[in-house]
Amino acid sequence: MVEKPFEAIKAAVRSYRKTSHIPLSYSAHLEVAARLSTGAPSLNHLSAEQERYRDTPTPSIGEMLTALRSCEHLVSSAPVALQDADDPEDYVRYEHWQLMAEIWNATVNSQDDISSGPRPLQALICRAIDIEQASVPCMFEGGKMLSRKESALQLPDERWILSGWLFELEGPSIEHWDRLRDAATSFGYGKDAAAYYRAACRESVNHSWHPAAAISLGVYDIPVSTPRLFRQEESDEEFKGRIEGIWRHEEPEAFELS
Questions:
Q1: Tens digits of per-residue pLDDT, 15-72?
Q2: Helices 5-19 and 26-38, axial angle in degrees (round to 10)
Q3: Which of 96, 103, 193, 230 is the most buried (most CB within 10 A)?
Q4: Coil, strand, or helix at residue 12?
Q5: Do 149 and 57 share a structural domain?
Q6: pLDDT (tens digit, 9 = 90+) per residue, 79-128?
């Protein structure tokens, strides 16, 4: 996706910073861009081994998500605004993914006509090498059936692409929900809290919540290890409270008295 990686990335970062606001220092921006667009462990690795990373293959959807997770710690303190004032605080993770996707998109040397626009994560995923195999509804335009990629770009957000990818990868996903629950108990949360977490993860996909919910809960953190939602020394009540905040935000009807 990148030619002559080191100099090309520096040029792309400098150019983008002239016209767009990235809430990172130049060095941090460059570090994130280098890691995401080439797969190098760091900018120093890229600088030292440019031939190795000169012809970086286009990643799959799963590889893109893995790359974003691997760089989260580099943007975790970046000041980003939530889309809505009443969004749960944990949705900041989704905004950090959007930031990283914006950086990645701006660094990609691509001949496609994809515009990052206001939905950089969706645009990034539509650049994945396996996007034409994604389980997204095909749309028609001018009497012609659009490709999966073209259809995915017209969706309102990433939820259909990501949930389709998950089901293709995991099947019915029952074992995936169980793995998320088991990760919670292994981390130290009680069984009831872990079961509540499992239920929220499942509902976030099955009930088509905003993708910020599933991403914040850790649904797409595969393989399942320690979802970023987990916090050291947090009580079960505090954990369930944050999950309930997400649930109420996405599906307030579930808490209405019958």
A1: 999 999 999 999 999 999 999 999 999 999 998 888 888 777 889 999 999 999 999 9
A2: 130
A3: 103
A4: helix
A5: yes
A6: 999 989 899 999 999 999 999 999 999 988 555 667 666 689 999 999 99
Give pTM, 2 decimals: 0.92
How much of the chain is in helix, strand and coil states, percent to nearest 5?
A: 60, 0, 40
Nearest in space to 213 (alpha carbons), one of 225, 227, 226, 201: 201
As a whole number of angstroms, the distance between CA 99 and CA 118 comes to 11
Residue 145 parent element (H or E):
strand 144-145
Q: Which of 129, 163, 197 is the last residue of a domain?
A: 163
Domain total in the chain: 2
The Cα–Cα gap between 52 and 73 comes to 25
Q: Are residues 10 and 127 in the same domain?
A: yes
Cis peptide preceding 252, ω within 30 of 0: no
Q: Tell me: do 89 and 41 sit in the same domain.
A: yes
Secondary structure of 76-116 as H, E, C letters: CCCCCCCCCCCCCHHHHHHHHHHHHHHHHHHHCCCCCCCCC
**231 plus 129 within the same structural domain:** no
- C-alpha span between 40 and 151 (Å, rounded): 31
Strand partners, 18: none
Residue where one domain finishes, among candidates 128, 163, 198: 163
Same domain, yes or no: 31 and 154: yes
